[in-house]
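[scheduler] slot 2 assigned
[scheduler] job type: sequence-to-structure, two independent chains
[scheduler] chain ordering preserved from manifest
[runner] begin chain α
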Amino acid sequence: MENIFFPTQSDDEGRLKFAPYSLRKIEAALLEYGFTKDEVIIADPRKLDRAIGPETKAIGLTVHDPLGYSAVSQLNACLFRLINWWPAPSYTAAAFGDIIKNPLLKKYNSKLIIGGPGIWQLEEHPEMFKEWGIDCLVSGEAESIAGPLFESAVKGEAVLPERAASGKPLRSDKVPIIRGPSTGGVVEITRGCGRGCQFCTPNLLFFGSIPKENILKEVEIEVRHGIRRIELHSEDALFYGRKLGSFEVNHEAIVDLFTSVKKFPGVRQVATDFFACSTIKSAPKTVKAMSEIMELDKKHPGYVETGLETVSPRLVQNIMPGKVKPYTIEEWPDVIDDALGILDDNHWFTVASMMTGLPKETEQDVIRSIEFIDRIKHHNVFVWVFPLMPLRAMLKNAAKWAPEYTPLRQELILKATRHSISLINREAPRILKVLPVWARPPALLALKYVTGMTLHFFKGADEAIARHEDRLNLYKDLQYAHNKEGEAVMHVSSVVNELVKIGGGSTTLLPEEEQNLLQGS
């Protein structure tokens, strides 16, 4: 079953043919530093016995959501609780547990170095480092420090630091070029964001556009290995080529890049993954041009993510004032509506995220969000409302604003989910066009059944909300600690464990990259 849903391709040595893009970047950084191709392998997690041996001195693991604390995991758990089901243990949490407990990791006294966007979850449990066998956690742009760090591990010259962080941001023209194909044909075109949202990791990275010649070099590598669909990755594709300090879209640079990639020999399809509503509204001509280059139409739509987060002007001002630029905070709801209309006109489906449980969020703010979903539901937009976990800049003040998940907040989560499931149900034939023709009829039947049953179960949740029943029961038994400044902070893990209790405690999430290892030997 695992091989059907999460297949991997690897050779007899356990070397993955297609690997997560982040690991390809680390591999490139190590090779640039001086390691040889024979010394670095991105390993198939199902063939660790072939990839790890007596010569293995260092093992790197990338994690995205190892303990199930991500927004998607929280939403899944919330939905299960709202329909009075306990969430099942997640595949990736179980996969991470299987890997971290694999005796091969420490059989030859190899150093274990862990990085990736999910390390904050591990940082919540420093008491587990010894049991997990972690020698070093790496945060930030690991390409800049991977070489010296792995060299120290391989040579055994010193005890590795428990925590390591990248220092000066990498210049965009210094980001290593991948040496092998990535899973999904991903190619990075920008790094960082610069809008300043408190809850977001990319905000911590220095913004830069990757030079076009480097992008095309990576496209060539992907195509050479049989990939025909290129996913141009960024925090906002409409930011490509923009000047630092400006929010003005560089139409010529974007059109030139997308045209060059689309016309690259061997490329059949170009996609991208994220737009910001403010840049969409400010650049309808560019969106139209991109859509034409990508050959989108009603039968072959594009899919893109965007973050709405909240429509409360007061909350926008508090946590993400830069997200609306070049518009005013008061214009944000109109900006979203107009942006979604532009995407509709150009044959895009949008996956939009909102949050509840923001600092100082009031019932009136929640009502605004509920009403706003009604306002935008005519667009081709899937809306998912995530319960916020206090991270990054918010974490140290979390204890001061931990919300209760009142009936209104439960209603907001349900309303958004019901709308999105109904849209999936209605647009299933178009959505499933990505599948082979033979797979579409059974997939359509399965999808219709799942969505229908989900909506049926939601009726019971509606009745519970009407009785003012709190089925989520969040934030009832928080654990607190104190940081060095003496301010109360909340352990994220206690909230999640309260949310997704199963017996002794477990988690739920969607499959990600935890089961992929980069092993330096």
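[runner] end chain α
[runner] begin chain β
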Amino acid sequence: MLYCDAATFCRRRNDAGIMTDETGRRCAQESIDIIIMKNNYNYLFIIKIILITYLKIDNHTQKQTMGKLKAFMEVPRLEAGYRPIHDRIQDFGEVEQTLNTHDRKMQASRCMDCGVPFCHWACPLGNKAPEWNDALYKGDWELAYRLLNATNDFPEFTGRICPALCEKACVLNLTDHAPVTNREDEAAITEAAWRENYIKPQTYERNGKTVAVIGAGPAGLVAANRLNKMGYSVTVFEKNEAAGGLLRYGIPNFKLNKTVIDRRLALLKEEGIVFKYNTPIEENALPEGFDAYVISTGTPVARDLKAPGRELKGVHFALELLSQQNRVLAGMEFSKEDRVTAKGKDVLVIGGGDTGSDCIGTSHRQGCKSVTQIEIMPKPVEGPDDPNNPWPNYPRVLKTTSSHEEGCTRRWNINTLEFIGKNGRLTGVKVQPIDWKPNPEGGRPIMIEAGEPEIIKCEICFLAMGFLKPQHAEQPSNVFICGDAQNGASLVVRAMASGRDAAKKVDAYIKSLA
């Protein structure tokens, strides 16, 4: 009703030749006042359409922030998509394809210069998508990268693996479930920056202070990068043979090729950051000689499943598969006895998140016979909208990844009872359908039986049920914890934001001592 009234208001004045800029602004303001009075902010988008359609805004004559104001109405969302299944399961190359330059610029043009850019609000890094999308549309790739890199230290990582909280909060996602392709635009901008040599090593004046970063995952790398730019001499200690954390040892190459990490690390080293690998550090025995410390050791302990038969050969944590496969691709060799492989086997993945999905894709590439994935929680809502978590929040809806598309039986509300084996080796897992009912006392729902136990045949099983939040002893005032080590397992983009915040705290602390 509001839309019809406002549209008629605009059209009548336009037809009468009295629709001046001032009249249009008053029309919009009157409509917005009604929206606020009725507390229905969904109609704010309607005002955008009214101003464009009935005021006949001329993209070439009117000054405006964005390059093509009507693009979101004229250009449909276009995703790059994935390589064909029959092709991609034969190797560990990245599955996602890329658009040509013209199509990518057209996708960037769809960013509609919202009065309130919820993409910026939703991104933990505060990425300014409207600004760099506009620069991309206009063909200024270097400016686009500078704007992107101002808030995001490593956009080549998030451009590949971020779940794009910004896209779910995009106003276009509210109206027609076709948000701007921010994540893909981000990746394209960064790859162009590397290709055109916009990214070059810089030198920074040193301030005489030193900082040790313990853990070289995304949070630690961002903290190290920021502190290095501030003038601190930074040394990163890493327990593994290379930096990256779960970027390197958890995320498969078909989602993030490790040469992308190595390229950035080479730059960080050239800019003065020192990396010490194969050097585990305990929190109660931090290396001496540093003015401050950043602990970014992630969540090293995976959640286990203490069911009978857990000790059988063939039951593994998800990271035993994922980290070993990534090491194999890097050239490391393992004995036949130590090799974790799904080749020729029926696979069961317990856990319905991204880590479980990564196990599915890896199993296919290793040559498994079949894959089943079970989850103890109910099946998420299908479709783009989540009634319990509405826009602009991230919708908790059913997610089908590229790995799921490659072949997988998925089941929900399944509880694991027992691992079954023969001669010490896994042959199946006993499970039972369950349901959840509200707890009359509040809190966690109560699990109830909803069917007879059954056995899922499998020769290898991967536990992908998340990670335990680390517990830390009280630390001195010059020790700062960030990333998953501080907050528990979360998104890479949140870990990066936490690392950035830790760098600010270190800087403020050291300056307070001066």
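[runner] end chain β
[qc] chain β: The domain at 210-301+469-512 is CATH 3.50.50.60 (FAD/NAD(P)-binding domain).
[scheduler] slot 2 released
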